[in-house]
Design a protein that fits this description.
By secondary structure, this protein is α/β, with parallel strands linked by helices. It folds into three domains: 153 residues, NAD(P)-binding Rossmann-like Domain (Rossmann fold), CATH 3.40.50; 162 residues, Dihydrodipicolinate Reductase, domain 2 (2-Layer Sandwich), CATH 3.30.360.10; 86 residues, ACT domain (Alpha-Beta Plaits, 2-Layer Sandwich). It is built from 14 helices and 17 strands. Strands 7, 8, 9, 10, 11, 12, 13, 14, 15, 16 and 17 form an eleven-stranded mixed sheet that branches. A six-stranded parallel sheet has the order 3-2-1-4-5-6, with helices on both faces. The longest helix is centred in the C-terminal third of the chain and has 21 residues. The termini are far apart. It binds NADPH dihydro-nicotinamide-adenine-dinucleotide phosphate (NDP) and ligand LTNE7NMQ. The site of the ligand N[C@@H](CC=O)C(=O)O has 11 residues, from helix 7. Keywords: Amino-acid biosynthesis, Metal-binding, Methionine biosynthesis, NAD, NADP, Oxidoreductase, Sodium, Threonine biosynthesis. Belongs to the homoserine dehydrogenase family. Pathway: Amino-acid biosynthesis; L-methionine biosynthesis via de novo pathway; L-homoserine from L-aspartate: step 3/3; Amino-acid biosynthesis; L-threonine biosynthesis; L-threonine from L-aspartate: step 3/5. It is an enzyme of class 1 (oxidoreductase).
Amino acid sequence: MQEKKVVNIGLFGLGTVGTGVVKLIEGHQEDLVKQTGNEIKIEKILIQDPDKDRNYKVDSNLLTTDPWEIIHNKDIDVIIEVMGNVYPTYEYLMAALEQRKHVVTANKDLMALHGAELLQQASKYQCDLYYEASVAGGIPIIRALVEGFASDRITKLVGIVNGTTNYILSKMSEEGLSFEEALRQAQELGYAESDPTSDVEGFDAARKMAILSNLSFHMDVNIQDVKVKGITQVTKEDIELGKQLGYVIKLLGIAQLKDEQLAISVQPTMINKNHPLAKVNGVFNAIYVYGEAVGETMFYGSGAGQLPTATAVVSDLVTVVKQMNLGVNGRGVVAPYRPKLMMSDELMTSRYFIRLKVSDRVGVLARITENFAEEMVSIEEVLQLRLHEEKKAQLIIITHETSKAQLSRLLPKLESLEVVDAINSVYPVEGDEVE
Ligand SMILES: NC(=O)C1=CN([C@@H]2O[C@H](COP(=O)(O)OP(=O)(O)OC[C@H]3O[C@@H](n4cnc5c(N)ncnc54)[C@H](OP(=O)(O)O)[C@@H]3O)[C@@H](O)[C@H]2O)C=CC1
Ligand SMILES: N[C@@H](CC=O)C(=O)O
């Protein structure tokens, strides 16, 4: 019988995802051998705190705090990087590729910032670099975009790509939890980043949208090209008013190509309660992909968490090992080939939900709507609600399709009106086509 070749892994990180990777490699070893013909062995694990009490026990001889011990180990074939952060991780992975080690990573911060250089380095040393887990945890969306839609032209992506914020918004909306309590739960469940600011301020989702846009539109997109707004300003009042009007608030990433111009945004959005994305709750993620030929498709699954994320990591590892056996590593990376042209504010359109606090007296509505007319912003729906405060009312206006440029001219005008006390909130509105 032919001897099984052992593929040795250097694992960078033994936190939430790293522990999941160890569990899957150990627990699914038989399947991995069947699929690849190789035994997969974890040779060394990089950690930073040797005294940490770990709830999943590994052989302590595997642990090291020295990355170079792994990078310069000639027996190690593949590095799995699940330690996070951009630096020093970037330096480690560039060096590992130079040592001709294949790399699998879950690190979107790194890929959104240095993905192009790392892919170039991988290609230079005929190594693989896979990063499926960096977007939407367990959903194989990168593979779908790169392989499944290779023959199509993608025109739009709409996604819930951050598990933590979707968990928080779902808990606030369905169970009335406060933002702080819901965030605390998401942290305990291992969904949030070590610094959850990047989740709640939308940066994590923005990085993921930059990665997906790169692969979908073949443009050299980076995080600076994404307009970002997080969920910290979303109030229970907005959630309740949205519900009354038939909407759910979700942190949506939208990337859209119009006349060869690309717009990418991440922002809290009112989405029709009957749209499939409105029903994606908790840590679940979903991505709608619109292709010229295929039409609409939707991908759904766990966007974060130990085992869903580890599944994506270990599946990438299987691909690397199969390619090692075929001797075809480092091929097939397609560099961006379309010129990057970002969309002007005139071309970028949406419907909007605008909530104002106004004076409650004769002529106020006319005074306000005349400003909409001056900016050619067409109103679809108006709702006036009494406030407990004397002579004050709440006005909710939903517009027809309006350009970002029109909105930017309208809002300061409304703000300066003596009858308007405050613009409480503005949300894009999506998904009414399902009605
Ligand atoms: N958690 C999730 O659901 C998901 C996470 N990701 C990504 O996966 C990566 C890992 O996330 P997660 O597992 O949650 O992170 P954790 O914070 O749980 O784990 C990080 C691990 O890396 C080790 N580590 C961190 N910095 C260093 C360093 N400088 N040198 C040596 N070891 C280091 C830590 O060591 P020690 O244990 O000693 O502290 C720890 O074991 C991140 O890039 C994250 O964005 C992607 C998708 C989902
Ligand atoms: N913090 C991230 C983890 C996965 O990428 C999230 O909540 O989605």
